[in-house]
Design brief:
2 domains; 186 residues; 9 helices; mainly alpha; AhpD-like; 0% strand
Length: 186
């Protein structure tokens, strides 16, 4: 396994220096995932602008999608980060575990979006007719669908960066997802 060290602050490009100050002032540190992207003068800024774009989805919907994607992609870093963020946004431990499995029995509308996301990721966008119908029947629009797909795309980027670069965990470690049966993902 090749480990790619986090860049030293003095190695970070001038394009990224203001982000270092911003995160230090806002949350007290720069998350390792973001810091790892600063090996490039442009990768983090491009990712961050895409990640922080305007969307029709609520923060809770986006976190639910991020949890499903991190679990399906096996990104322990992102599972841990989004577990913490989900807790800060009012999700219980049980709800987080359900979301990681690609369901939300506690909320019909949220269940429709996470089941769609799980099907999209597992089937690479094919054979999602049932999930897509359920999504629209739950009250989501075409705008919500496009915004959902963008969250999925951002999740792929962050998940694979965390995995490929072996980004060290700097969030509380999330518990492993226990298998509850043959249809559970982990």
């Amino acid at each position: 396994m090749t480990t790619i060290a986090m860049p030293a602050i003095q190695e970070i490009s001038k394009e990224n220096k203001h982000y270092i100050r911003y995160f230090n002032e806002r949350i007290g540190h720069v998350p390792n995932l973001y810091l790892s992207m600063m090996h490039s003068a442009h990768a983090f800024e491009n990712f961050y602008h895409f990640y922080e774009r305007k969307t029709s989805l609520s923060l809770r919907e986006r976190e639910a999608i991020n949890l499903v994607m991190a679990q399906l992609n096996g990104s322990h870093y992102c599972i841990s980060a989004h577990t913490m963020i989900a807790k800060l946004n009012g999700f219980s431990d049980d709800e987080i575990m359900q979301l990681r499995r690609g369901r939300a029995n506690f909320n019909t509308k949220l269940d429709a979006v996470v089941r769609l996301v799980k099907a999209l990721a597992q089937n690479k966008g094919h054979q999602i007719t049932y999930e897509l119908t359920t999504f629209f029947d739950a009250g989501y629009s075409r705008e919500h669908l496009l915004d959902t797909l963008q969250v999925v795309g951002a999740s792929y980027m962050s998940n694979f960066i965390a995995i490929a670069l072996h980004v060290p965990l700097d969030f509380p470690e999330a518990h492993a997802l226990e298998k509850n049966g043959p249809n559970e993902s982990d």
